[in-house]
Amino acid sequence: MKRLGMLLSSLVVAGTLAISSAEAQQVTLDVLYAFPAFAKFHEPIAQEFMKLHPDIKIAFRAPAPTYDDGHQTMMRQAVTNQLPDVYYSGFHLLSELARTLAKRNQIVDLDPLLAADSKEFRAKNYSDRIVALGRVDGKLYGLPFNASSPIMYYNVELVKKAGGDPEKMPDNWDAVIALAAKIKAGSSDVAGLAYNVHDWPDVWLYHAMITQAGGTVVDGDRVPLGGPDIGVQTLQRFRRFVSEDGMPLIDWDQSRQQFIAGKIGIFFDTPARLRQVTDLIGDKFTLKTAIFPIDNKAKGGLPTGGNAAIITTQDPKKQKAAWEFLKFVTGPEAQKIVVETTGYLPTNLRATGPEFLGPFYDKNPNFRTVSLQVDRSVPWQGYPGGNSVRIWRAQREIITGIMRGEIEPKAGYERLIKETADLMKSQ
Amino acid sequence: MMASAVAIAAPVPVVRRDRQRLIEKLAGCGFAFPAFLLLLLTNLVPLAVLLYLSFTNYELGALDTRFLGLDNFRKAVTDPVLRRSLANTFVYVAIVLPGAVGLGLLIAVLLHRRKRTRTFYEVVYFLPVTSTLIAMATVWQFILHPNLGPVNGMLRAMGFGEIAFLSEPAYVLPTLAAIGIWQLVGFNMVLFLAGLSAIPRDLYEAAEIDGCRSGIDRFLTITWPLLGPTTMFVIITTSITAFKVFDTVAVMTRGGPMGSSEVLLYAIYLEGYQYFHMGYAAALTLIFLAFVLLFSILQTFVLERRVHY
Amino acid sequence: MDTHLPSPHPSPGGRGRSPVGTLARRAATLFVVHGILIAGAVFILLPFVWMLITSIKSPAEIFAVDFSLWPKHFNAVENYGFALQKVPLLRFAANGVIVCAGILLIQLLVAIPCAYALAKLRFPGRTALFALVLMGLCIPIQVPALPLYMGLAQVGLLNTYFAIMMPFFLSVFAIFLFRQFFKSYPDEIIHAARLDGMSEFEIVWLIVVPSAWPAIAAFSVFSIVAHWNDLYWPLIVISDTHLATPPLGMMFFADAETGSNYGALTAAATVLTAPLVVAFLIARRRFIEGITMTGIK
């Protein structure tokens, strides 16, 4: 209540200050983010920032329910000129949003701002791979704030019962499928694994399986979806999850609930839920996490989910303030708060160090897992043409059909290629 | 003397009638005016805007739009996704309409005569109407969970296999329809109760004297005919509400699995707000409206003829 | 010659059977009636029972397979406390009250005269208006949402209570509902009142409306409940949290990315549903029961 009271009163203060801005050195930044539950790190971070910068006030708008809703809000507000000053855009929607706003001169290029700070600052804090996630058409429009790549959650007791070694989980897919089959065989109502690509709201888990094998999803204007080898193998693998490992083809929430109840052995999901899943499991069983199996150790990569902060305000004073804010939220102190409350991958290199997350990771090793994959991060691309959401829905239906055994993987791959190409053209 | 009295008597009622008609006309227009104004502002003008949009290829946030003529409508007619969503919507309505109206009527009739238990049951049956979907969605997911939920637990105890209510294409629409009925029963019950309470008690007493004694007799001779206007209202509003189904699909199934729960409004929502094809979505919206309007007008005129006032 | 005459004191069954027989029939009827009612009630209550139980459970117990109705660790204080503190739930409830009251008031003021006109008065454009009303029933809020949003943005009225309420001022549902009720109101009474010199305005508000209390009460409850739980439109027009309505508030606990705090979510849902149940209880007791008891008709 106190924290909220402080926030509310700072909102009121921000309001009155904004009005009497004549003599004010004060700048108020309107900030919008998605997923209301993220208030648990956005608000403490804003508090810390305002302590360090008393001349800047952070005012949060009512958060959007999802990345897609936030994206729609931004589009609407671009048209009616009511954009917030700072917005956290989901990576997969960043290029669409940035291109639209750039055409209307409503977004700020961050390269000059980043270049103004010393090269050491940049090298110490931001890895090239992470910064690349915020690039659109060569320009840096977003500074990555939350990042995640899929990880493996597993039930230690079920793995042991199947003869596996919880300390050395398999690191390639055939081995994982074999282990999961043993888990399924060991109990009557337990499923070996769950990989909920059939109910995922976007292409993340689908692309992950392709890129980890070194396949290419998007190649300029073409969309090979991994090519005939990796592409078909990916689909066959999805089918094997169901036929050999007993994966239940249910809603992703129900699937997670089943894992939490101890009825699924291995579960692939976003690390962002680690905190929630840990709490819900309690002491029903021992939860551990491991890195995502990579078949192609040389070239394999993982699409990075999450969001990047963009600046839309055209007021130079506000832009300066916004840049300070962006640097702070992607700084080690703020990233520490993010990781402790969720399970995300920190986007700051210093954050994993001993002065910040080191001790936390030591006490909660499950949270460290995702940071071990940071070198495998690849940008998560939408399909060219801006029809990504539609295309994924069509692809997902085919993938579900394959997993249900109603479509053969090879035929399914042909259909995927054709329908994707058709939908891309119809733009 | 007689003649003049008659001569004077004749014009007065005529003048009164004309004046009465004028008052009626003025009052009618005046009473209806605020409603008409709001109708214009909140329904007709937006519809006109949508009409304009449906002839373009407007995308949200775009700076320029192109005029497309009837292309959007032509595309809609051959769109398999649209046809599927139409079929899904019809199935949904076909289950919800008899279920929600019939159950609502049954409960209302059963409750109407109770004295001590009536408040309790009324509150219980009305609870779903007050529920917020965001919270209920999680609850339903758990209750219907194939592995963990109580419904399947019961099915297993009775010897049947598990049913993935929300994940099997064949089951998802009936499941959503059952939830839709769950949401509407209390609503219709209250409407029927209001209608039942407007039926004068003495009619029942008179009927009893006339020899109509059993409950069913009473219902068929008195209750049902006098409930006419209410029933008509409930049928029309229930079917329109069923046609407009959106929230449960958006929150619980998101159109899945494999598009088997994609209903009309959800398909339109996807076009406009997820793919941002506002022009096409506008065209689809107009088609949707045409369907529902036709359906309701048909219902109104068919039912109105059978209803006694 | 000896026709069967009904007994001087007809028993409730009215057929002159033995008292024991009628008692048995009565019991059987009651058994069937309550049987049906209770079966239905179970179907209705099942989700609420789970909701309430979840709101007092600790996170670890919520998705346990050994489904026990009674929690082992009581987390009620934490869940409800979290729900009430982390988020200004009471503020959202207050907003709900303001928005719903405002909407209901205007709805009644606009719909009742219009319904009366459609039911009892002849005026030019009557059928056209009724057709438009029917059409309005078919229009969900998603349809005019975008144009309305842009219009409100133009006049600078976004992010206000007015913006939340405005699209709902006209309730075609109310017009349709009241029209049905008014249509069955006896014309003779209206004619008599007219002859007495009452204006149409007085007739509507002083004579016809009191007879339609059940319908008005029923509608009020629906309106309040529907707009209390409105999510779609407030989501579009509000960007300040202190204007948020209850469902927007609940979104704070229901999150697709980092997962839901189910205990707090169901606690918040309980807190925010309670006022609606209370409103329902008040409405029905006041109007519906009162009317049938006094037997106005």
Notes on the structure:
The complex is a heterotrimer of chains A (427), B (309) and C (297). In chain A, 48% of the residues lie in helices and 13% in strands. In chain A, helix 2 links the parallel strand 1 and strand 2. Chain A is built from 19 helices and 13 strands. In chain B, 77% of the residues lie in helices and 0% in strands. The N terminus of chain B is likely disordered. In chain C, 70% of the residues lie in helices and 0% in strands. In chain C, helix 4 packs antiparallel against helix 11 and helix 5 packs across helix 8. The N terminus and C terminus of chain C are likely disordered. Chains in contact: A-B, A-C, B-C. At the B-C interface, helix 2, helix 4, helix 5, helix 6 and helix 8 of B face helix 1, helix 4, helix 5, helix 6 and helix 8 of C.
| Total beta-strand segments of chain C | 0
**CATH top level class name of the largest domain in chain B:** Mainly Alpha
Q: List the chains of the largest interface with their residue counts.
A: B-C, 97 and 107 residues
Q: What proportion of the residues of chain B is helical, as a percent range? A: over 70%
CATH topological fold name of the largest domain in chain C: MetI-like fold
Number of helices of chain B: 14
Report the biggest beta sheet of chain B as strand number plus sense, adding barrel if it closes. none
Tell me what the CATH architecture of the largest domain in chain C is. Answer: Orthogonal Bundle
Find the structural class of chain B using helix and strand composition: mainly alpha
Q: Per the principal axes of the C-alpha atoms, what is the gross shape of chain C? A: flat
Superfamily at the CATH H level of the largest domain in chain C? MetI-like
Order of helices and strands of chain B: HHHHHHHHHHHHHH
Q: What is the CA–CA distance across the termini of chain C?
A: 41 Å
Give the second-level CATH assignment, the architecture of the largest domain in chain B.
Orthogonal Bundle
Roughly what is the average pLDDT of chain B, rounded to an integer?
84
Quickly count the helices of chain C.
14
Oligomeric state of the chains present here: heterotrimer
Tell me the strand percentage band of chain B: under 5%
- What would you call the structural class of chain C? mainly alpha
Poorly predicted runs of chain C are: 1-14, 290-297
